Amino acid sequence: MAFITQYFKKMHRFEGCRSLGARLSELKRWGTTSLHLALLALLALLPLSASAQFAPAPTVQVADLTLERVDDAYLLSTTLGFELPTPVEEALNKGVALYFLSQAEVFKERWYWYEKSVALQERHYRLSYHPLSRQWRLLSSSKPIPNSGLGVTLGVAYDDLQGALFAVKRLSNWRLVNAADIESGAKYHVDFRFKLDLTQFPRPLQIGTLGDSEWNLSATKSVRLTPEPSK
């Protein structure tokens, strides 16, 4: 009975915490074990989802997406336009790492059957804030990045958040597919996809963001790839 009373007192304190950052700070003051902290994080996030589900979804613009053949490959370049929604930025500043994913897939069109996937390229990002150094660290890889960040070949530290996000937003001369895999006279198109990858979050946070439109940061765009001679 005492536990139930204490639980409702703590949950009452949550009602006064309107942001995710404030609720995470509240959890830290409770001094729980890691298992209990995960469960309580879920309880903290669920009310936020209910209150924010009617908020407009953030927009991501895919500008100037170009495909160009250079020597033996086709390269993709584009610039993304978006800002982090307030709850997402608050979570980042409170120690929650953000994961982004850019994908580009080349399809060969076939009138007699389903489209054939010719190539799929991925670029994964892990963005985290380090309060001691007051820096944002961005890791990037062609494969999913573990929570520890180990095994990643490229990591850069930034003094401000905008600099780190600019590196996520800008894709320049990304090798997409070998020219030898593109047949002359055939029809191809490229599907480009970008998203805030919620599947990389701890399970309680994944559940807590369900139905919250402010965490639905994504974009898609399809462009035609025309076979061309080498430049």
Descriptive report:
By secondary structure, this protein is of the alpha+beta class. The protein has 2 domains: 2-52, no CATH class; 61-225, no CATH class. 29% of the residues lie in helices and 36% in strands. It has a 6-stranded antiparallel sheet. Helix 2 (20-30) packs antiparallel against helix 3. The longest helix has 19 residues, at 34-52. The chain is elongated. The relative contact order is 0.21. The model is unreliable at 1-12 and 32-54 (pLDDT under 50).
Beta-strand residue percentage: 35-45%
Q: How many strands?
A: 9
Rounded Rg: 21 Å
Q: How far from one another are the termini?
A: 76 Å
Q: Averaging pLDDT over every residue, what do you get?
A: 79
Category by helix and strand content:
alpha+beta
Shape: elongated
Domain module count: 2
Largest beta sheet, briefly? 6 strands, antiparallel
Low-confidence stretches at least 5 residues in length (pLDDT < 50)? 1-12, 32-54
Topology as a string of helices (H) and strands (E): HHHEEHEEEEHEEHE
Order of strands across the widest beta sheet?
A: 6-5-4-3-8-9
Helix percent band = 25-40%
Q: What is the helix tally?
A: 6
What's this entry about, in short?
The chain is an alpha+beta fold and 231 residues long. The protein is 29% helix and 36% strand. A hairpin with a 4-residue loop joins strand 4 and strand 5.
